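User: I'm preparing a small set of examples for a lab meeting where we compare how different chains pack in three dimensions. I only have the primary sequence for this one, and I'd like the structure in token form so I can line it up with the others. Please keep the answer compact; I'll paste it straight into my notes.
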Amino acid sequence: MKAFEKAFSGVKLAVAGLIVLVAIRVIFAMYHANADPEIGRRAEVARTAQQNRPHDLQLLKRPAVRKACAEHADWDMGTCQTIDSREVSIGMTEEQVYLAWGKPEKINATISEKAHREQWVYGRQYLYVEDGVLRSMQTPR
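Assistant: Understood. Below is the structure token output for the 141-residue chain.
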């Protein structure tokens, strides 16, 4: 019986120690969140953008872009406006590029151990897509 009480006492001590560690982590996280005003500002900007999103979506001219942006809440409105203007930018996904410029005239693919790369040809402009993301562009001078 004494061995059981001794083991149980050790478990209680371990649980109490764990609770103290968790409490310290929570206090530490709260302190740092309040200590960095930039974190609070970014959170407020994100909340405002989320509240304005339904109205901003209505300002998009192209119905297909409006629909896609409504379905992809993770797409920021700046990207949606770029797509709506039929423009592309580095960092866009394949789906975003396709919405902006349509189907490429030709796709040249390179598959290696490390990546899947494609060259999307639009007339004399070339877009380089790597693992589903637009990484670079080549335009004529």
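A couple of notes for your slides: The chain has a mean pLDDT of 82. DSSP finds five helices and four strands in the chain.

User: Perfect, thanks.
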